[in-house]
Amino acid sequence: MIDYRRLRVALLGAGAVGSQVAALLLKHGDELADRAGASLELVGIAVRDLDAPRETDLPRELFTTDAETLIMGADIVIELMGGIEPARQYLLQAINSGADIVTANKALLATHGPELFDAADQVGAQVYYEAAAAGAIPIIRPLRDSLAGDRVRRIMGIVNGTTNYILDRMDTEGAEFADVLADAQRLGYAESDPTADVEGYDAAQKAAILASLAFHTTVPLDAVHREGITSIDKAMIDSARHAGYVIKLLAVCERLAATTDGADAAGEASASRSAASRPLDDRSRPSGEAISVRVYPALISRDHPLASVHGANNAVFVEAEAAGNLMFYGAGAGGVQTASAVLGDVVSAARRHIAGGVGVGESTLANLPVVPIGHVTTRYQITLEVDDQTGVLATVAGILSDGGVSVATVEQTVVGSGDHDTEDGGVARLVIGTHTAREQDLSDTVDRLAASGVVERVVSVLRVEGE
Ligand code: NAP
């Protein structure tokens, strides 16, 4: 047996993920030592409650409530507590005491990532977070390392399993949102307070992490446009299916060419850059390019690979200039699945610790501005209820045209019968597919339609992605 150098591993948190990480670390210790070139000794597990039930059988003597003392003696600190504080303080303490850190904490990284990366840079430590964006799916290393020589054009991610589970069941079973959400809560796919998932907060944190890596730019969480899925109903799902689409909550991270919106897009967005991310310095190369990072329910063609992501699975579809299209697919959550990604990070951290030298840092020098949602261009599907009378279609078409929104398809169905005595022609439903339009133009035009007198109700406005 090889006499490896011993590395002390401290674990903060023994919940769904942490308890699995501890169990696998203990079970496969010898194998991991051969891969890492170091013996990984789990020296302690910090928790809040020593008597709380655990999902795996772990030696009681490893548990402590004194996280700070545990961190002081560690070479590698794994943070699986979640939340911002005290996770942030503990990780800064770990970095400053010479440890490499491993975390799956997307909320912390999306809000305090630059602070942690800067602290690590200063002491030559490394921050690993493969599990933070898509659970077990390897996507952080592919973006940070494998694609470092390429230029990512766009990422479209299904990065929240709860919302994908809900939308998928609405699509495949014709169920209503509230019923599926209740089921998801009962089955443990959704929290009792589902806000972080169904309102898109969780996906927005992951989008900020993915965009930062893909575009070598610090993307502050408040620069991510976010919409959830609570307004999606059965009628919208049916209408999408009828038109050959499926509705998915997508995290879209996109590089916008300088010519898309001219210097104005970058100019207007620069406030977001200078206020919230690192300042431009002499090494920055302003290119006129900008990026957009957004989370919303969108229509994608049933032929698109992301349409085949069912249940609580996640997938990240990456479009790169040289590599072309790549899709990363699998379990975006789950204790043991996520533990796989965490342990991969632990092995990487151990290898670097043994090899010595400064680790690979985050590259943020592209420093691209993040444009507001109003500058984004995409296609739309607008569903309206209108008076079923002669000339209404022409009026709607005129308003769209005046607003700079070009119509690609229109489908009209009668949904309410009229009253011959009162000359009430009833209600018709118009489903309008547009060509590419600017979000601000589209939104202004929809406001004008709503106020036009011929539109009874704007039923929905959905973006079409992946075309
Ligand atoms: P969890 O089940 O809620 O477990 C949290 C653990 O942290 C518990 O053991 C808790 O101790 C401990 N803890 C919390 N606050 C603490 C404090 N102040 N001091 C010491 N210990 C503390 O969380 P989880 O689901 O494992 O998630 C952990 C992290 O992984 C989160 O950042 C999450 O976003 C991320 N993540 C989770 C998944 C997943 O599928 N669950 C997937 C990807 C990423 P007690 O047990 O004593 O209460």
Total number of strands: 17
**Which parts are unreliable, with pLDDT below 50 for 5 consecutive residues or more?**
260-285
Quote the distance from N terminus to C terminus. Answer: 56 Å
Give the cofactors and ligands. Answer: NADP nicotinamide-adenine-dinucleotide phosphate
In CATH, the topology of the largest domain is named Dihydrodipicolinate Reductase, domain 2
User: How helical, in percent, are the residues?
Assistant: 25-40%
Structural class: alpha/beta
Which CATH architecture of the largest domain would you pick? 2-Layer Sandwich
By DSSP (H or I, 4+ residues per run), the number of helices equals: 16
Residue share in β-strands: 25-35%
Number of domains: 3
The CATH homologous superfamily of the largest domain is named: Dihydrodipicolinate Reductase, domain 2
What is the level 1 CATH name of the largest domain? Alpha Beta
Cα-based radius of gyration, to the nearest Å: 25 Å
User: Biggest sheet, open or closed, and with what strands and sense?
Assistant: 11 strands, mixed
Average of per-residue pLDDT values? 91
Shape annotation: elongated
